[in-house]
Give the backbone structure.
Amino acid sequence: AAPATGSSGLSGREIYAETCIACHSADGKGAFPGVPDFTRKDGRLSKGDDVLFRHVMGGFQSPGSPMAMPPKGGNANLTDGDIRNVIQYLHEEFGS
């Protein structure tokens, strides 16, 4: 089957609450050591949306971090559109 590119219809906020919040926390500062702090001006959100998309899509482990983010944050049902929606939400909620 071709990868789903549209959105599930959920907002970025809803996707974050369902999929991301357990590790990244409600305040975006990370719930565990090694989880990036989205509120830092020079942090993960400064990397550019294409980089963020690739990291969410394929999973990512920060150098020195004891844990890795699984592909799609562990939610195999996320579409490309869902991932783009959550990245937009991250910028709106935690970005400068």
Remarks:
- The radius of gyration is 12 Å.
- The chain has a mean pLDDT of 91.
- The domain at 12-94 is CATH 1.10.760.10 (Cytochrome Bc1 Complex; Chain D, domain 2).
- Helices lie at 12-24, 49-58, 80-94.
